[in-house]
Amino acid sequence: MESLVEEILKTADREIALIGEKVLEGRRISEEEALKLYRSNQLTLVGLLAEFVNRKKNGMNAYFIINRQINPTNICMYQCDFCAFGVTRSDPKAYEMTLEEILKKVEETVRAGGREVHIVGGIPSHWDYGRYIDIVREIKKRFPSVAVKAWTAVEIHHMAKISGKSYEEVLKELLDAGLDAIPGGGAEIFSERVRRIIAPYKASAEEYLEVHRTAHKLGIPTNVTMLYGHVETLEERVRHMATVRELQDETGGFQVFIPLAYWPEGTRLGGSRTSSVDDLKTIAVSRIFLDNFDHIKAYWVTLGERVAQIALNFGADDIDGTIEEERIVHSAGTDSARGHPAERLVSMIKKAGKVPVERDTFYRTIKVYD
Ligand code: V47
Ligand code: SF4
What we know:
The chain is of the alpha/beta class. The chain has 2 domains: 2-53, no CATH class; 54-368, Aldolase class I (TIM Barrel, Alpha-Beta Barrel). It is 46% helix and 13% strand. The chain has helices at residues 2-11, 14-24, 31-39, 43-58, 99-111, 129-142, 153-163, 167-177, 192-198, 205-217, 234-251, 276-289, 300-303, 305-311, 328-331, 342-351; strands at residues 61-65, 67-70, 116-119, 147-150, 222-228, 254-261, 295-296, 318-321, 355-359, 365-368. A hairpin with a 5-residue loop joins strand 9 and strand 10 (365-368). The longest helix is centred in the middle third of the chain and has 18 residues, at 234-251. It starts with a helix and ends with a strand.
C-alpha cells in the first residue's frame, strides 16, 4: 500500500505531496494541513493516506458490536434546532419508558447475545437525579454481563445541575451503580458561534469536555462525536478535531472518534444532506489528523450502509453495532434500517474487503470472522 501511495504522491500537487510524506513518516499534521486535505480535490489520495494510517493501527480488522440503543424518553427541555427527536412533554409524539420497559429491552438484548446497551435520551425537566442512577443500577443488578454505555456529557452535566453535585461526584455514583462507558453524543461542534445557532441551551463545549476529562481521570472510557454538515465551516470542524486531539493528548481516555453526518428532515434548522464526498473526506481527514486515536467509527445509521462500507477503505475501522431500534437520526429522516442482525454487519464488512471482528464496548475481540 505504501508504494501505491508514494506513486500517487509523485503526481499530486506539491502542498499535498508534502503533507502525504509527513503522514507516511508517521508525523502529526497541523490544522492548516488538515484544511488543505479537506479542500483538496484529490479524494482518492486523501482516502489512501487515511487507509494507510488505519492499516498501521488496525490491520484489515473492521469492528462491530452486538448492542442495542435504548432512548428512554424523547422529552427534552433543550430543543436544539438540528434535532427532530427531542419534543416537548405535550407533543403527541412524546414518550417515556418505565424502568420495567427498559429492563425488558435489555433482557431481549442479552438473550440475543448482546454485550452492550447504549442509553441516551432527551432531557426532561421533570426527571429527578435518582432516575438516571437507578436505570444504570437496575440494569447492572439484573444483567451483570451487559456493558452499560450510558448518558452523554450533556445528560451528566444536567444531572450535576439538578443535584447540586460536581461532575466527579455524579460520575462516581454512576460508576458505583455499574456504568461502564460514556457515549460521545452531545459534542456537536465545539465552536461558540455554531453552538449559539444550533444548540444554545445545552451544555457548552467547555462543560462537555470537562465531563469527559473527569470521566477519564476516574478511568471511565468515553467516545466523542462531531455533528457536521449544517452551519459549521471547515475551519470549525478542524478546530473541533484539534480540541479533541488536545484532550486525548492530556488523558488518553477516548476510545473512538465518530463523525455524525447531519440529517435535516423535520428539524427547525433545515438544510440539506451531506454529500458522500464530504462524508468520506471527513472520515479520512479525521483518521489522518487524530493520530492519538485508535479507532474511527463509520456510523452506518448516519452514513448509510454503502458509504459506511466505502468508509472502511477511507480510514474507518468500526461501524458500531446491531442497534435494534435507533430513533434519534430516524426522526431526522435517515433511510437506513433501524437495526441490523449481526450476520448483516458481518456481510457488510466482508463485502468491503475487511475482516469482521465482533468486539465488546472496550474494543476487546470477541470473535474474528475470517
Ligand atoms: O448528540 C441529533 C446526533 C447524537 C441529529 O458513542 C443527529 O458510540 C444527525 O452520539 N442528524 C446521538 N445526527 C448519537 C450519538 C452516538 C451514536 C452512535 C454511537 C455513539 C457512541 C454515539 O445524534 C446527538 C447528535 O449529535 N443527532 N440529531 C440529526 N438531525
Ligand atoms: Fe435534546 Fe439532545 Fe435533541 Fe438537543 S440533541 S434537543 S439535547 S435530545
